């Protein structure tokens, strides 16, 4: 297999759509999530995102990157207005409806209605979760951190609740995502099933890692 070198100049001269696919693919497999929000008038919204990251366990924080606000961004506007939102992990039974949530629907049309996905709610929490998703996470906005170089923002939320099957949580707290058919995404539109190879013990100097047997 031959190797090709792309310089910064080469990348800048790529056609826009080609460059978007190429650069988005380079970061590897990412989690596929639907971002669930609601505005102050009760209109719900779902958006496909692939940039969710763990930011800390105490307090329990997660973040995602929102694109530049050069056009209307329903999701982040809803988050700022209400302060709450959900992450909903995508499984194969949710495709292609989950992918379709990336379409630019008008604010008046909920992606739930447009795609056939179902709303669910946790008492006292305004933002909807996706019933077809096996793992739902409710978050409250902590801060938005601007990334000056390209106009994106890191949206940081603190976890208020997690909804998932208890059978996939190991005694040590590890969540076996592959048992829930959780998908990974590559690039802008590639979806992949996952298969765990192994779990290993906590790494210590001068000790060989031991393979774990639990979930």
How would you describe this structure to a colleague?
By secondary structure, the protein is α+β, with helices and mostly antiparallel strands. The protein has one domain: Roll (Pnp Oxidase, Chain A), CATH 2.30.110. It contains five helices and twelve strands. It has helices at residues 8-12, 16-26, 74-82, 97-100, 111-115; strands at 30-31, 33-38, 44-49, 53-57, 60-66, 84-89, 119-120, 129-130, 136-147, 152-163, 183-186, 190-193. Strand 7 (119-120) and strand 8 (129-130) form a beta hairpin. It starts with 7 loop residues before the first helix and ends in a 22-residue tail after the last strand.
Put the structure in a nutshell.
With about 220 residues, the protein is of the alpha+beta class.
Helix content: 10-25%
CATH superfamily, please? Electron Transport, Fmn-binding Protein, Chain A
Q: Taking strands numbered 1, 2, ... along the chain, how are they ordered across the largest sheet?
A: 3-2-6-9-10-5-4
Shape: globular
How many strand elements?
Answer: 12
Strand content: 25-35%
Radius of gyration equals 19 Å
In the CATH scheme, the class would be: Mainly Beta
Distance separating the two termini: 37 Å
- What are the secondary-structure elements, in order, as H or E? HHEEEEEHEHHEEEEEE
**Protein structure class:** alpha+beta
The mean pLDDT is 95
CATH architecture: Roll
Domain module tally: 1
Low-confidence stretches: none
CATH topology: Pnp Oxidase, Chain A
């Amino acid at each position: 297999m031959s190797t090709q070198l792309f310089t910064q100049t080469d990348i800048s001269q790529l056609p826009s759509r080609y460059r978007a696919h190429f650069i988005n693919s380079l970061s590897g497999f990412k989690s596929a999530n639907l971002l669930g929000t609601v505005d102050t008038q009760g209109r719900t919204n779902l958006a496909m995102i692939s940039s969710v990251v763990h930011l800390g366990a105490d307090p329990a924080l997660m973040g995602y990157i929102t694109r530049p606000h050069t056009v209307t961004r329903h999701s982040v506007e809803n988050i700022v207005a209400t302060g709450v939102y959900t992450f909903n992990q995508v499984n194969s039974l949710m495709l292609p409806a989950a992918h379709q949530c990336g379409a630019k629907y008008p604010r008046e049309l909920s992606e739930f209605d447009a795609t056939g996905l179902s709303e669910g709610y946790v008492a006292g929490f305004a933002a909807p979760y996706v019933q077809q998703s096996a793992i739902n996470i409710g978050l409250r906005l902590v801060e938005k951190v601007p990334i000056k170089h390209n106009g994106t923002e890191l949206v940081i939320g603190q976890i208020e609740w997690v909804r998932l099957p208890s059978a996939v949580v190991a005694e040590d707290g590890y969540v076996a995502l592959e048992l829930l058919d959780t998908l990974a995404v590559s690039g802008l539109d590639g979806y992949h099933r996952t298969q765990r190879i192994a779990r290993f013990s906590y790494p210590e100097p001068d000790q060989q890692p031991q393979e774990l047997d639990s979930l």
